[in-house]
């Protein structure tokens, strides 16, 4: 955990649980669509796919202050992908 105070550690822990549950839910839906068992899918592969897809998250749905953060994050991730020789789609 990166947080320094007990309150922020608790917040980060709960956020991690929520995101983990959301990824598992998406994996379950994807498995149902493909007639697979969710256990047949890789959690880390699902996380990688979601990270790549977040690069193309529609910025107009974010509050104006958050747009700058997402634009910087997209640029940084695109630069990393380009340095590795992949475009991550």
Using the alpha-carbon principal axes, give the shape: flat
Q: Uncertain spans, ≥5 residues at pLDDT below 50?
A: none
Mean pLDDT: 80
Q: How many separate domains?
A: 2
Number of separate helices:
3
Radius of gyration over C-alpha positions, nearest whole angstrom: 16 Å
Beta fraction: under 5%
The helical percent reads 55-70%
Q: What's the main sheet like?
A: none
Distance between the termini: 29 Å
Q: Helix- and strand-based class? A: mainly alpha
Succession of helices and strands: HHH
Describe the structure in your own words:
With 89 residues, the protein is an all-alpha fold. The protein folds into two domains: 1-51, no CATH class; 55-89. Helix content is 69%, strand content 0%. The protein is built from three helices and no strands. It has helices at 6-33, 43-54, 64-84. It is flat, with a radius of gyration of 16 Å. The two termini are 29 Å apart.
At a glance:
By secondary structure, the protein is mainly alpha-helical. The protein has helices spanning 6-33, 43-54, 64-84. It has three helices and no strands.
Give the tags:
89 residues, 69% helix, flat
Write the topology of this structure:
Elements: H1 6-33, H2 43-54, H3 64-84
């Amino acid at each position: 955990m990166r947080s320094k105070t007990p309150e922020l550690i608790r917040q980060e822990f709960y956020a991690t649980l929520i995101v983990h549950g959301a990824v598992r839910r998406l994996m379950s839906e994807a498995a149902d669509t493909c007639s697979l068992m969710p256990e047949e899918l890789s959690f880390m592969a699902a996380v990688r796919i979601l990270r790549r897809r977040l690069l193309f998250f529609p910025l107009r749905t974010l509050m104006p202050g958050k747009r700058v953060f997402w634009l910087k994050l997209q640029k940084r991730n695109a630069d990393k992908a380009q340095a590795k020789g992949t475009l991550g789609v």
